[in-house]
Amino acid sequence: MNWTTLVTTTDFLAALSDDELRIVDARFVLTDPDAGREGYAQSHLPGAVYADLNNDLSDLGRQGAGRHPLPDDIAFASRLGERGIGPEHQVVVYDAGDGSMAAARFWWMLRLLGHSRVAVLDGGLAAWREQGLPETSAVPDIDPVPSYPARFNWHRVATADEVRERLDEDSGWLFDARAAERFRGDVEPIDPVAGHIPGAINRPYAENLRSRRFKSSEKVREELVPMLAGRDPSDTVLMCGSGVTACHLLLAFEHAGLHGAKIYAGSWSGWISDPSRPIAQGD
């Protein structure tokens, strides 16, 4: 096993009993924060542990950093150890379907620790169930390991100040993964201010998918490269509403062989926490 972006249900099933495999269920529903944990309790993939977006993959106590601020890396490393995840393991993470809520977020956070052997199950639990594959309600008996021996590479996380300093640059460096109507500011069902950061270009994360699975790496690359306008992918910053679906867009970049983009973790909800920061609306 050496999966670093996506893994199919077929390949994953063949390795399900491997001792080096660790499985994480990251289902989450923004409008019902308990739904993912409750769904896990009812049924999940054999051997899977649960990771909660609000409690494990965020620190909701941090102010001004968006709706899902990154947690302290020491705390996250400890949670990994409690779930039996160490540097030697191949990790596969899934959510209810397309990976956006919040499997890709977990994938990115492990990548920030330098863990390369982590992949999102393409199609998630929905694809698993379509094939009638096994599930269980049994919580696995996990042998904890020491806290993960690494810290976040903060150079791969863009700050609001970094974004603001680049606002005069030509388009092609800042990608917003929200739906088009939210990007334009036509509607805003979650955050108190509608619109986008001036100069950002819109690449809704759902455009990386076909029937809830990722398009081929060639197809995603074909669509993304023109949007880069000649920039190196490592010179780009990705964002969304709160730094969650931006991870899905990063996964698409990596799937397409476009490596090194940063994520603005605060994203739109963090940007608008300071009313002095400029906003734009429309296309």
Q: Layout of helices and strands, plus pairs?
A:
Layout (H helix, E strand, L loop, with lengths): L5 E2 L1 H6 L6 E5 L9 H8 L5 E3 L22 H10 L7 E5 L8 H10 L5 E4 L2 H7 L26 E2 L1 H6 L8 E3 L3 H5 L16 E2 L6 E2 L2 E2 L2 H12 L8 E3 L5 H11 L6 E3 L2 H5 L12
Parallel strand pairs: 1-5, 2-3, 2-4, 4-5, 6-12, 7-8, 7-11, 11-12
Antiparallel strand pairs: 9-10
Helix pairs in contact: 4-9
Molecular structure report:
- The chain is an alpha/beta fold and 283 residues long.
- The chain has 2 domains: 147 residues, Oxidized Rhodanese, domain 1, CATH 3.40.250.10; 117 residues, Oxidized Rhodanese, domain 1 (3-Layer(aba) Sandwich).
- 28% of the residues lie in helices and 13% in strands.
- The protein is built from 10 helices and 12 strands.
- Strands 1-5-4-2-3 form a 5-stranded parallel beta sheet. Strands 6-12-11-7-8 form a 5-stranded parallel beta sheet. The chain has a two-stranded antiparallel sheet with strand order 9-10.
- It is globular, with a radius of gyration of 18 Å.
Largest sheet: 5 strands, parallel
Tell me the strand percentage band: 5-15%
Overall body shape: globular
Question: Low-confidence stretches at least 5 residues in length (pLDDT < 50)?
Answer: none
Examine the coordinates and then state which fold CATH places here, giving the name of the CATH topology of the largest domain: Oxidized Rhodanese, domain 1
- Number of E strands: 12
- Helices and strands, in order, run as EHEHEHEHEHEHEHEEEHEHEH
C-alpha-based Rg, rounded = 18 Å
Report strand order across the widest sheet.
Answer: 1-5-4-2-3
Give the termini distance in whole angstroms: 43 Å
Summed up, the helix count is 10
Please state the second-level CATH architecture of the largest domain: 3-Layer(aba) Sandwich
Overall mean pLDDT stands at 97
Provide the structure class: alpha/beta
The first-level CATH class name of the largest domain: Alpha Beta
Name the CATH superfamily assignment of the largest domain: Rhodanese-like domain
Helix content: 25-40%
